[in-house]
Design goal:
By secondary structure, the protein is α/β, with parallel strands linked by helices. The protein is built from twelve helices and 26 strands. Helices cover about 30% and strands about 25% of the residues. The strands form eight sheets. A six-stranded mixed β-sheet has the order 5-2-1-9-22-21, covered by helices on one side. It has a five-stranded parallel β-sheet with strand order 11-18-12-13-14. It has a three-stranded antiparallel β-sheet with strand order 6-7-8, with no helix packed on it.
Length: about 500
């Protein structure tokens, strides 16, 4: 029985395995999916997770719960040698091993792409993972609690200032959602006023949200301004050392803003793990594929090898893609995965494949409770109806009814009960409270032999633990790849 190895369990990987389970006959093939995370993250919900509208666990889809016929391996793929049809699997604990396969599907996704701006790597946080979104929410809540005990001044201003870098969909959505969240939060903090909160978005281009019309983007700018949020167009972040953001405008003027929360949403790039494969890559570091999603090397099909999603350079047959390729977003990743699964099964049965072609259905974004925008061609919708369309579309797009009901439950509960404003920031160091009051052995006297103590574990990590619970592929990001401007849509 042939083995199909799916490398990556994000949008494209999860949907590929999910649809293969549907299309394959019993005993026709074995499917193995490898990803360092045990779940798929529904990234369009990350802004709402950051704003407390959706419980973090409800915005992810458990691999093992929903892939009943797939062998799920929670580990990293560190090398793929297609010449020998083997992949090196590196688990968090234990020794790496070689996994053989007959067919491979590369769906390793994308990671945040930053520039070598001083301070960004040390001070900023991205918005690609559920952990980042939850941390942003807790940071806002913790900073409010701290600021409420301080007098007016620079220290309080720093705690109540949010800076978002990047004016694409992801940046605008998290910026607007947090503005809405903070406005609601002020009701619980009578010591603070609306004027004490400061929001700044930095965009290097002369406009925001290039996926919508210029008229619609202007409406969004006006709406944000009315809500007390500042958007700096044609402005770059020059430095973020120590949380001191230096904003460099087109005229070379510098504006300085201090912030305790800097969110980076200014680009993504293909997961650099593909450099550990023998597949052909284009200049942006993506695997080259033909329209039916088979990997190609200078026009020649690489037998038994497929790729889709953010890690693949998929030709856009509609002619609307940047550089002739599909933009890296969720809309394409999901549909490519569905087509790939059909095509892969078709080739196994000596049937014809179908080229991937998808006309953009439009763009929809949530800008806080009751506010949104929708754009399809020349038709645009703004305000409450667009917000309803945003929630309706993504509520239906969330994989599985089990996940849909959990998200809808969050929305209904939020409508009647309001957002939960309890911060769980201390979960980053869960053993701190225990260690603070734990009894320790008394120091040995001069007459007593000293016991040889085992090395103390790091704070928040049990003894013998190998490292963080989740992989951080962004640490491996190549410095030489060009950024791919994209959002989570």
């Amino acid at each position: 029985m042939p083995k199909i190895l799916v490398v990556g369990g994000g949008y494209a990987g999860f949907y590929t395995a999910w649809k293969l389970e549907k299309h394959l006959r019993p005993g026709e093939a074995e499917v193995v999916m490898v990803d360092p995370l045990p779940y798929m993250t529904y990234q369009p919900f990350l802004p709402e997770v950051a704003a407390g509208s959706i419980e973090p666990r409800h915005a992810v889809v458990s691999h093992r719960r929903h892939l009943k016929k797939t062998r799920v391996v929670t580990a990293k793929v560190t090398k793929v040698d297609h010449a020998t049809k083997t992949a090196t699997i590196t688990p968090e604990l234990g020794e790496p091993w070689e996994e053989s396969y007959d067919l491979v599907v590369m769906t390793a996704g994308a990671v945040s792409r930053t520039f070598p701006i001083p301070g960004v790597a040390d001070e900023a946080i991205g918005l690609k993972t559920i952990e980042e979104a939850a941390a942003i929410r807790d940071k806002v809540l913790t900073n409010f609690a701290k600021a409420s005990n301080l007098p007016a001044g620079p220290e309080r201003d720093r705690l109540l200032t949010v800076v978002v870098v990047g004016g694409g969909f992801a940046g605008i959505e998290v910026f607007a959602e947090l503005r809405s969240f903070v406005t609601d939060l002020l009701k619980s903090y009578p010591q603070l006023s609306f004027d004490d909160t400061h929001f700044h978005l930095v965009e290097a281009m002369g406009r925001i949200m290039p996926e919508v019309s210029l008229e619609t983007s202007h409406w969004v700018l006006k709406n944000l301004a009315e809500r007390g949020a500042n958007v700096h167009l044609e402005t770059q972040l020059a430095s973020a050392v120590g949380g001191v953001c230096q904003l460099k405008a087109k005229d070379e003027s510098i504006e300085t803003i201090e912030s305790d929360l800097i969110i980076w949403t200014a680009g993504v790039m293909a997961n650099p793990m593909v450099k550990g494969t023998d597949f052909p890559l284009e200049p942006r570091g993506r695997i080259t594929v033909q329209p039916d999603l088979r990997i190609v090397n200078e026009g020649e099909i690489v037998t038994d090898a497929w790729a889709c999603g953010d890690v693949a350079a998929v030709p856009d047959l509609t002619g609307g893609g940047v550089g002739g390729m599909c933009v890296p977003n969720a809309q394409h990743a999901v549909r490519q995965a569905k087509q790939l699964a059909k095509n892969l099964v078709a080739t196994m049965r000596n049937e014809a494949t179908v080229d991937y072609k998808h006309e953009n259905l439009g763009a929809v974004a949530g800008l806080g409770l009751g506010i949104g925008v929708f754009q399809s061609g020349k038709f645009a919708m703004k305000g409450f109806l667009a917000w309803g369309a945003h929630r309706g579309y993504h509520g239906l797009a969330m994989p599985s009814w089990e996940r849909k009901w959990r998200v809808i439950g969050d929305w209904v509960g939020g409508f009647f009960l309001g957002r939960d404003i309890a911060s769980l920031d201390d979960r980053e160091t869960p053993r701190a409270a225990f260690e603070a009051f734990a009894s320790r052995p008394k120091p040995a006297t001069a007459d007593e032999p000293k016991a040889v103590a085992a090395p103390a574990p790091e704070e928040g990590k049990p003894a013998d633990a190998a490292g963080p619970a989740y992989a951080t592929p962004a640490e491996d990001v190549s410095k030489d790849a060009e950024p791919i401007k994209a959002d989570s849509k």
